[in-house]
Amino acid sequence: MKKLLFSSACLLLLITSCKKTTPDPAPAPVAATPFMTYASGTTWDYQTTDSVSTTVTSYTLTATSTDTAIGTKTYRIFNSVDANGTTEAYYNQTGNDYYEYTQLSAQLPPIDMKYLSTSAAVGTTWSQPISVTDSASGLTITANIKSTILDTGFVETVNNITYNRVIRVKTEITNLATNNPFVTATVESQNISACYAPKYGLIKRAFALHVIANSPLGPADVINNNTTNILMHSSIQ
Question: Domain 38-235 - what CATH class?
Answer without folding.
Answer: mainly beta
